[in-house]
Amino acid sequence: METPTMQNPTTTKRPARTPVPMNGVDTPTLFATIGAVKGQPELGSFQFRATNRWQQGTHSRTRIEGFSGAGGEHAHAREFSYDADHPAVLVGRDQGPTPVEFLLHALASCLTAGIGNIAAARGVTLYEVESTVEGDIDLRGILGISTEVRNGYRQLRVSFRIKGDAPAEKLEEIVAQSRARSAVYDVLTNGVPVAVSVNAG
Amino acid sequence: METPTMQNPTTTKRPARTPVPMNGVDTPTLFATIGAVKGQPELGSFQFRATNRWQQGTHSRTRIEGFSGAGGEHAHAREFSYDADHPAVLVGRDQGPTPVEFLLHALASCLTAGIGNIAAARGVTLYEVESTVEGDIDLRGILGISTEVRNGYRQLRVSFRIKGDAPAEKLEEIVAQSRARSAVYDVLTNGVPVAVSVNAG
Question: Could you report the predicted ipTM of this complex, rounded to two decimals?
Answer without folding.
Answer: 0.92
